[in-house]
Design goal:
rod-shaped, mainly alpha, 4 helices, single chain
Length: 208
């Protein structure tokens, strides 16, 4: 009986060792496969992350380029509008100065013709200035409008006084010299300031 039990324990013990060995081997294989799978998963995630980062960089570069093109086009439009407004404003101012001239020479257009040219230049200015307000910096718009409004006022006041003179109505005898002084001295300095502001906005500067 003792020999049988001993033999049985030997067999069972051996089987236990085999089972334990198989269990250990299984765990080792599973661990190896899991580690390998985890490493592969990490590699895949890194690859996906690199692709996503590169796509994001590409999109950001594209957006930056689009913004740069958009702003460049806007700057070009602003410069174009300011150039047009300045040209029309100069034309208006120049026509008014000619209309208000005290000393006139033979062969010059009549006052009526000069008034017509001034009115035409005024309309030309406002036709460009108001519709393009979107592209004119607010401070420039307000300063330019105030100056142009003043030119309109001077034109109207002088025209009314001139008509009164033609009609023989009593008028201030100094109205002509006042208008001339106002357009050359007062508004002349305002115009010079406007020119400098236009140049500043357009990036025009002296190079030392």
């Amino acid at each position: 009986m003792g020999d049988v039990m001993k033999e049985l324990l030997t067999v069972v013990g051996g089987a236990g060792i085999v089972v334990a060995g198989l269990a250990w081997l299984t765990r080792a294989l599973l661990t190896h496969w899991m580690d390998k799978d985890l490493e592969g998963h990490k590699t895949a995630l890194r690859a996906q992350s690199d692709i996503a980062i590169e796509q994001l960089r590409s999109e950001l570069r594209q957006q930056s380029l689009e913004h740069e093109v958009k702003f460049r086009r806007t700057d070009e439009k602003i410069a174009e509008v300011l150039d047009q407004v300045y040209r029309r404003l100069v034309d208006f101012y120049d026509c008014l100065v000619k209309y208000l001239k005290i000393v006139e020479y033979s062969g010059e257009p009549s006052k009526e013709a000069k008034l017509e040219e001034t009115s035409k230049a005024s309309r030309g200015f406002w036709d460009v200035f108001i519709p393009n307000r979107l592209y004119i910096p607010p401070a420039v718009f307000e300063a330019t409008k105030a100056f142009a409004d003043k030119l309109v006022t001077i034109t109207n006041d002088f025209t009314f006084h001139l008509k009164d003179v033609s009609d023989g109505a009593p008028v201030d005898s100094h109205f002509w010299s006042k208008a001339w002084k106002e357009i050359n001295d007062e508004q002349g300095s305002v115009f010079s300031s406007l020119v400098k502001e236009f140049q500043r906005r357009l990036g025009v500067r002296d190079f030392d």
